[in-house]
Amino acid sequence: MTEVNSPPRLGGWTRFVTARPRLSLLVALVLTALAVVAGSGVADRLGSGGWEDPTAQSTYATKALEREFPASQPNLLLLVDSGSASVDDPAVAAEADRLTARLVSEKGVIGVGSYWRTKSPGLRAKDGHEALIAAHLTGDEKATNDTLDRIAPALRGTHGPVQVKVGGIVAVRHEMQTIIKEDLARAEMIALPVTLLLLVMVFGSAIAALLPLGIGIVAILGTNAVLRGLTEFTDVSVFAMNLTTALGLGLAIDYALFIVRRFREELSTGAEPLTAIATTLRTAGRTVLFSALTVAVSLAAMLVFPMYFLRSFAYAGIAVVLLAAAAALILLPAALLLLGHRVNSLDLRRLFRRGRPAPAPTAGEGTAWGRLAHLVMRRAPFFALATAAVLVLLGLPFLGVRFGTADDRQLPSGAESHVVQQHIRDGFPGNPGGGLEVLAEGRATPAQYTAYKAEIARLPEVAGVDGPLVKGDSAYFTVLPKGEAVDSAAQRLVGQLRATDAPFTTKVTGTAAVLVDSRHAIAGRLPWAAALIVVVTLLLVFLLTGSVLIPIQAVLLNALSLTAMFGAVVWVFQDGHLSGLLGFTSSGSIETTLPVLMFCVAFGLSMDYGVFLLSRIKEEYDRTGDHHEAVRHGLQRTGGLITAAAVILAVVMVAIGTSRVTNTKMLGLGIALAVLMDAMIVRSLLVPAVMRLTGTATWWAPGPLRRFHERFGVSEGGENPPGGAGHNATGHDVPADDNGDGSPHESGGVRAIR
Q: Is 137 left (phi over 0), alpha (psi -120 to 50) or beta?
């Protein structure tokens, strides 16, 4: 508690952010306006792919086939429905030929083929009423989208005796981009008012509630500008925009929530605004900075993977976390200094108090959480075992996970490209989309091609082999597996084809080959990503606490908190439970990169809440030397705020989870569940129970590490005598009373924000 009459002790950071608050806010306003301009149209420059390893054999083969044999890689399909007539009816055939000829004449379209020109049975439906026209659109993703926009309106719809629908990979990706942009706008319309309402309930004051929302908007707009700049140099996934919105609002609100809460409490003790700002930045500000670093590190782990889908989330996530922290630590103090006591203006809760005076911000705060902490620690073995068992049980469905690739079933069942692909899956012979292509490079004789074809035809998983189609020194074979497109047999066949000797260089591609290569790329780099997260987390938590055991507990309990999310992902999205209620089509598998993405994001958010709790416990332990009381007091002071922050972030993620694209729905709802489980189960029950069981050994560290922490640590526990005031590193008296916001005050750390 800051003395009313004592002059404010201003460190360098406090002087920097409060020297010219009006100028700071004006500059921020100008920069935000520039960010709006710079980030405009960013969604149109983002891609909807990025699940493949760009260095993989399958990626090389796909590009080579697109270049040399475009007809082998059709990315545009026209589903021609002849109604009650046969596709071989002369009128139907004549109209289909006109459509094919029109497609051939279009710029940017090559490799056009159709059932009526090739008579291939694979292009004719089993009932004889539907057939396909296939083509390849050239160029990168933006070029193919532009071509599709130009030609699709004239192709789809009724043409004489036939009805035409547009499908294929290009159409799927284009429709996915459009839906994601529409869903994101709707999610923002849902999240912003609900978030504002929750903030008003937390703060009471409408003015105080608007500040976190403003910080979130600044972070989102700034990140959009960053992503727009990145598109000039690298591919960025459109899915990353969802993370930008979710983390921009969620984390900015988290950070601002702690800072505004701390500032208001300082004012309630009689401190002047400048003094309150100084204390707030030394306490909640330092914790916010530390939390932002832990989240950024977890997201940065995705940079080790080659898929631009995952790397895009790292770009967006790191940018939005750092911008949210910067806005909370620079703009928010300037705004609070200008507002002063007016931060409590427009107290909407007075409408329900009927003339009663407003309670002090800390009055009766956390008593229920204190009682819960006491109960949990009194029955620590039971709560530790019970909560751990429940979390493990909820995660068991993940043992049956099946990995696959993203396809049209990500889209709503009524989406045109989804309808086309579903008709092909259900009504056409063979195994559409399940074929493997073998690219053969190098000069070879017809006899050598024939011998190679016979050899791969003898493989046990092969249903048939077509080809070769030869062009110069290149050729390709199409191999049809006996089973499903990406089942275990098809994946084994990929390995068998790659191991088959040939007198020329061979490379295998196709859906199963892409999946095999993606899994290999993730498996090979996953240990590095996990090591980065674990090592840096251990180091940061050690610097915060000075303990050897607490960092290990933090990593293990954080990982345990994610089990419910992974179990739910498999039970709901892979196995299809609740698919009708949630409005999605289950493909029977989980896209390979999604678990990695969800782990990195959810682990970082769990650490965000863990830092606030551990920091408060550490401060109390340093002040009193009473381990039991420190844990109880830490939960009492942070439980309500962490829960409020988690609920707000979960609301934002659920809004993202209303998307009609399955992967986005999975990401939003899964992380919302992980956040709530972490805040309400792990932080409230498991952490205090485990810390009670480990007792004072929780704080042990060997001598060399203790000395390292004393020199480089960022924790704020000083050499305070139990129950009394201590001194910080500058020699100023530090009162022993409570901060009340769950963020530690400066009692000995030499690296706090000042």
A: beta
